[in-house]
Amino acid sequence: MKPVIVVVGATGQQGGSVINALINSNKWTVRGLSRNISSEGSQKLIANGVQIISCNIDCFDECVEAFKDAYGVFAMTNYWECGMTKEYEQGMNMVNAAKQQGVRHFIWSSLPDTKAISNGQLDLPHY
């Protein structure tokens, strides 16, 4: 059996791109996380052999279940719908769930703190 890679935000542009690369490599079992497994995007992924699981990354227990038996996780948060405080909680839910499940590789897709690297000139908290 191929190792499982979990992709958060499976139906989004970034998550979908990662999933396509993983499928094309033919080295992984791909598990995509989506808030709506009935959506057209989720159904297309299922048709392409992706395991789609409903998961709200606001919920630690759902992350734990979604990361079960995973070798790796490609993670991202959702600043746009929830703001910086909730985004931090989402990230910590995923990190701690991955740690609890023994995930060997965890990739958190993000960007550097623009405020810090611009000496306070740019404040873009959504990164």
UniProtKB/TrEMBL annotation:
Record-level GO cellular component terms: nucleus
Domain NmrA-like: 2-127
A GO term, aspect molecular function: oxidoreductase activity
Top-level lineage group: Eukaryota
Record keywords, A-Z: NADP, Oxidoreductase
InterPro entries, per database record: NAD(P)-bd_dom_sf (IPR036291), NmrA-like (IPR008030), NmrA-like_oxidored (IPR051164)
Pfam families: NmrA
Family, per entry: Belongs to the NmrA-type oxidoreductase family.
Name of the protein described by the UniProt record: NmrA-like family domain-containing protein 1
Organism: Rotaria socialis
Lineage, broadest ranks: Eukaryota, Metazoa, Spiralia, Gnathifera, Rotifera
